[in-house]
């Protein structure tokens, strides 16, 4: 009998409750197919917006899968921060098609979990990293300013600059603003990206005699933005001891919406009804995603996803699913 696998990437969580005295948490995520052994991510200390980006291969069973997030405690039982449970059967119709979505967490206080999943005949986790073969295009990103940054130096200030990277490779760096917790840059860059590229904006504190401190970061993909429109948003900084916000403008060209072939299907990004990014993480960020005529025709995918995610308890009918589907 041929084995089947459920490939799961636990990417990140946002807006988790804080349970520790420092108004933060030390979250990790446990995942389990009902009736099977559980697996877990690493613990990320002192954050309510953890970034794991960890992948798992699990023997597939057409059963519910449970994701439960906990706050790690050294001297007492770990506190639950939120959970979500849903069936995995809808993935069978999209073999080796990674489906990425934000899942609303239930109990105790909400929050969101960002996942990518697919059904496969092998345990090759690289399937989860499959990119579209759409030709790279130019996206303009402007790092406008930051506010309320953490003071990293003894004088109660920081010397911040922004580092912009694409998929961990291509890099752009702003000027350093000395002795400033609310710097202004207004620096624009043309980046070579694909719809699923991960654009990361990291705020660092310049140090002459030691490694530069990371004050916080945010990340997004071009597929979360509307074509031929400038997304103008403030992003809450994530990471260890992060505080403050960064103001970003990003523009995706109109031609992008038509450059992906209609068949065959290779990957899908599915957004929950609240939008592509959880509320409270970004402000004034367009939530329509890539909502084109071609995507509206993906009724089969939308119906399968809506049915599979019905366990979220958010009334997700097929007409409410926003799907991003791209070719090999």
What is the strand tally?
Answer: 19
Calculate the mean pLDDT score and round it.
Answer: 76
How is the biggest beta sheet arranged?
A: 6 strands, mixed
Rg, nearest Å? 20 Å
- Terminal Cα span: 28 Å
**Could you name the CATH class of the largest domain?**
Mainly Beta
Sheet/helix structural class: mainly beta
Strand content: 35-45%
Sequence of secondary-structure elements: EEEEEEEEEEEEEEEEEEHHE
Q: How many domain modules?
A: 2
CATH homologous superfamily classification of the largest domain: C2 domain
Model description:
- The model is unreliable at 257-328 (pLDDT under 50).
- The chain contains 2 helices and 19 strands.
- It has a 6-stranded mixed beta sheet, covered by helices on one side. The chain has a 5-stranded antiparallel beta sheet with strand order 12-9-16-15-18, with no helix packed on it. It has a 4-stranded antiparallel beta sheet with strand order 3-2-5-6, with no helix packed on it.
- It is mainly beta and 328 residues long.
- Strand 2 and strand 3 form a beta hairpin.
List keywords for this structure.
six-stranded mixed sheet; Immunoglobulin-like; calcium; five-stranded antiparallel sheet; 328 residues; metal ion binding; globular; C2_dom; mainly beta
Topology:
Layout: E1 5-14, E2 27-33, E3 38-40, E4 51-59, E5 64-71, E6 79-87, E7 99-104, E8 112-120, E9 137-147, E10 160-166, E11 170-173, E12 184-193, E13 199-205, E14 213-220, E15 229-236, E16 245-252, E17 267-271, E18 282-283, H1 293-296, H2 299-308, E19 322-326
Parallel strand pairs: 7-17
Antiparallel strand pairs: 1-4, 1-8, 2-3, 2-5, 5-6, 7-8, 9-12, 9-16, 10-11, 10-13, 13-14, 15-16, 15-18, 17-19
């Amino acid at each position: 009998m041929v084995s089947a696998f459920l490939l799961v990437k636990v990417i990140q969580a946002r807006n988790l409750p804080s349970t520790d005295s420092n108004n933060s948490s030390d979250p990790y995520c446990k995942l389990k197919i009902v009736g099977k052994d559980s697996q877990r991510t690493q613990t990320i200390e002192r954050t309510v917006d953890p970034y794991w980006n960890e992948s798992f291969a699990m023997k597939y069973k057409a059963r519910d899968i449970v994701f439960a997030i906990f706050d790690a405690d050294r001297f007492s039982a770990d506190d639950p921060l939120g959970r979500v449970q849903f069936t995995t059967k809808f993935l069978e119709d999209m073999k080796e098609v990674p489906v990425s979505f934000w899942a609303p967490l239930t109990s105790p206080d909400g929050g969101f979990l960002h996942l990518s999943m697919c059904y496969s005949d092998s345990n090759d986790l690289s399937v989860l990293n499959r990119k579209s073969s759409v030709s790279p295009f130019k996206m303009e990103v402007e790092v406008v300013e930051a506010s309320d940054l953490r003071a990293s130096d003894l004088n109660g200030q920081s010397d911040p600059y922004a580092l912009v990277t694409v998929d961990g490779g291509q890099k752009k760096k702003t000027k350093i603003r000395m002795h400033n917790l609310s710097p202004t840059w207004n620096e624009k860059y043309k980046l070579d990206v694909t719809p699923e590229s991960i654009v990361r904006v990291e705020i660092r504190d310049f140090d002459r005699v030691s490694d530069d401190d990371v004050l916080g970061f945010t990340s997004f993909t071009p597929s979360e933005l509307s074509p031929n429109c400038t997304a103008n948003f403030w992003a809450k900084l994530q990471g260890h001891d992060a505080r403050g916000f960064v103001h970003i403008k990003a523009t995706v060209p109109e031609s992008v919406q038509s450059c992906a072939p209609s068949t065959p299907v290779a990957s899908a990004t599915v957004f929950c009804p609240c939008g592509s990014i959880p509320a409270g993480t970004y402000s004034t960020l367009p939530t329509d995603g890539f909502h084109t005529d071609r995507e509206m025709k993906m009724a089969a995918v939308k119906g399968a996803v809506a049915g599979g995610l019905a366990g979220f308890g958010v009334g997700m009918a097929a007409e409410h699913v926003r799907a991003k589907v791209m070719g090999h």
